[in-house]
Q: What sequence folds into this?
């Protein structure tokens, strides 16, 4: 089975969605291509950003799951980043965040959807 065949048979997909230009354009392009798009917002900032993502998703007519990752981000990424920086290292938080937080949460939500 090709990737194209897979998506023809499974038209529903999860999209990491911040409400910014990149994720919004991706959502529109995917919807226009016939996919049922479900946005997943990893809430790690403030209420303003969350409301912008919710408003953007509503305008585009896509469902949006919101996952609060603030505590997990602090515990698994920010604390380690600060400790490393204070030791004089040059930490890269994405190396921790992507597998421990971002991709794990997005894939778990995609499995639910």
A:
């Amino acid at each position: 089975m090709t990737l194209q065949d897979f998506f023809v048979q499974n038209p529903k997909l999860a999209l990491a969605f911040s409400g910014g230009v990149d994720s919004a354009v991706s959502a529109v392009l995917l919807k226009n291509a016939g996919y049922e798009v479900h946005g997943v917002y990893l809430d790690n900032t403030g209420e303003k950003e969350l409301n912008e993502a919710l408003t953007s998703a509503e305008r585009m007519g896509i469902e949006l799951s919101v996952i609060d990752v603030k505590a997990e981000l602090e515990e698994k990424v920010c604390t380690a980043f600060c400790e490393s920086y204070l030791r004089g290292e040059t930490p890269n938080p994405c190396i921790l965040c992507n597998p421990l937080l971002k991709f794990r949460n997005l894939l778990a939500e995609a499995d639910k959807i």
